[in-house]
Each structure stands twice: as C-alpha cells, then as structure tokens.
Design goal:
mainly alpha, two-stranded antiparallel sheet, 4 domains, 413 residues
Length: 413
Amino acid sequence: MQPLSSREVIRMRPSLLLLIVGCLFFGCAGLSAAAEQDSCFTCHEKGLFQDQVVHEPVKSGKCSICHNPHAARYKGLLRFEKGKLCYTCHQEKAESFTKGIVHEPINLHECTACHEPHAASGKGLVARDLKARCLACHGPREENDKIIPGLAEKYKHTHQPYLEGECGACHQPHNSVRPMLLVQAPDELCGSCHAEGELQAKHTGYPGTLRGCLTCHNPHGSDRPALIRNVLHEPYEQGCDSCHEQSSGRVSVEKCGECHAEAFGEMLASHTHLTRRDGNACVNCHSPHAGDEQRLLRARQKQVCAACHRESINKYKNSAFKHGKNIDNCVDCHHQHGGNDMAMLKGNGLEVCALCHENQGKFTHPVGPEVPDPRTGRMITCITCHNPMGTDYPYNLILDGKQQLCVQCHKEY
C-alpha cells in the first residue's frame, strides 16, 4: 500500500479533525458513570475510595468531575489547581471563608490538608482521628511557627475535649471572628461547660468577677492540677494585691518596671515595643499570671513575634534567598523590648551583622561613617545593599547585583 501524498493528507484534514472531535465528545459522553469508574479501577485500587463517608463524585462514579482522564496541567490530572477545584462546587462556602481570621490552609487553598478528597471515616471527609490531623501542623515541633504554641500529644492532666480529640468543640476549622479560631470568646466558651457557681466555688479568695481564664489555665492540658500553666509568675503565687491595685485592679507598665527594671529601661529607648502608655504593653507578649514558656511568653519566641509581624515572617519564608539557618530567633538580631537603632536592631547596620560575620572584615564596597549614602545622607552599612529578611536575589541583595543595585547610587555609570 502506497503512503498518502502530502496533497491527499491536506485534503483529509477536515475529516480527520471531525473524527477526533467526535471520539472525544460523543465517545466519552457515551460512557456510563459505572463504566467510567470501572475504567479507573483497572489501575487504581478500589479499596482506597471506600470508607464510611464517600465524596459525592466518587459515590456517583464521576471521577472526571475532578480529574481529566487524558492530560492536565496540574498534578494528579486535576482540572484546576488545589482548592480552586473544590470551589467549583463549594463556591458558597468559599465566600464565607474569607471573613474574619482565616485558617492558614484556607488561605493557601490547601483543602486536602484537612479533608480527604475521596473517602474518609469522619463527617465532612475528615479523618476520624481529628486530633491527629490537627497535631500534624500544631504538634510539638520546634519549626512550628504558628501563633498557637506547639501542643503535646499527652499531658499529666488533660482537658476532656482535647483528650477525646474534639478540637472542633472549641475551634472553628475554617475561619472565625475570634483569635485562635475560637467558636466563642474565651471566657464565654469556658462558661458554656463550667457554670459560674462552680467556678466561684473553686476560686475562693479571688476578688471581683472571674475572667481571663486562659491567663492561668492551659485549655489543652498541663502537668499541674486544674490545668494551671507550668510556669508561674512569682507575684501570682504570693497573692493578687502584690500587683493589682484594689481600686481599679489594673496594672501599669510602671508596676511591671518595679521588678523588671532592666526591661523597663529598654522600653524607654527611641525604638520600642512600648506601644501604649494607657494600657500595659508587657502583656502583649507575656502572660501576667502563668504560662507554658520561659519568661512567661505567651508562646514560643517566633510565635509571639508572628502575632504582630506575620507579614515580615511570611516574606522571609517565601523569599528565594534568605539568611542562614543559624539564625533561629528574631532576638538574635533584634532587642525584644527596645533599642536606639532602627528596627530595634542590636547595633547599627554594621555592628549587628558583625555579631556573627566577624571574619568578613574586608569589603568590596566602602562602608561606615565616612561613606554617606548619596540618596539619604546616612552611613552606608551592610543593610544598605543586603536585606537579612530575605530577597529574590543571591546574597540577600535588595536588587539585582549585576547592575540594577549599583545604579541606585552610581547614576553616572
């Protein structure tokens, strides 16, 4: 049989195109849902898609609702990327999830961080062991920089909902108008199980209305009875009136400074965390009564900073080039209370870098007090050209070092 000539192939193209389109549309549409799924199960083990709760597309045998059977731009032959695929059906929920404080997997469109896409043992396609799923992100790991401190799997004394894995009894899984995604304000939430009379009976000797449960109690568990947090503030052990004035009950920053004179002195610097004098800025970072971290921090150091500086931390995490891994905490470079240098750094842009980079004594570019920046008149330092918080350029340069960075000052070139 002779091969077709070029002219014959060109003449046949319209017919071939119609044939291909017909096969794709009419042929595929002709497959029943059962036949479509059976076709998938020739390669994919059927047992993986069977459990107490089955996703509707799987139950109806319509794998092609989520997957393209031939080719796709996204991993797993998905028709769209990540959560955008989920929102094609769950659009009304997607709109409600944008309000208030949003759980990080929702922001990242990572629905499958909590939900199984095919089948699961729990309601809402969540694994029955919800606690284990939550601990995958909120567990006792040092690298965890979530605002919520890392949770232990077991405590000597454990709060009953946490013991039973009922995280949803206190927390919303998607979003909330309250911190920590709580379903109610903290004291109201505690009061929904612990009646006021019961609480008053267990807090004899405490004047006034009981409030601020979380300042003394860990809602998940503790090694102390009554879920009292593990690190106690010394005045708290001695009695309330050592800090609280009887007339108002309020405690000023100056009152903290009576014991913590060094920290209070740092807060009087030109750049400071003393954000307000009408309240007590100390309690933004420290728990006044009891805590689970040293120095009564409300969480691990990076988590405390992230409560206000989340944007900076996200920029650092998402940068292509960032500072070395030997920098573990913000306080390696920054004063935690206050300092006289910009951004509360532990020295100017030369001194703070020299705390670690002591061997880089020679520079290819002049720096120091005798070398002013022509744009600002300020001294040129390491951070004039480098950003330790991360950039998209090698060596943490703030711009492309081949030319773009240099011409910011050397415009004549």
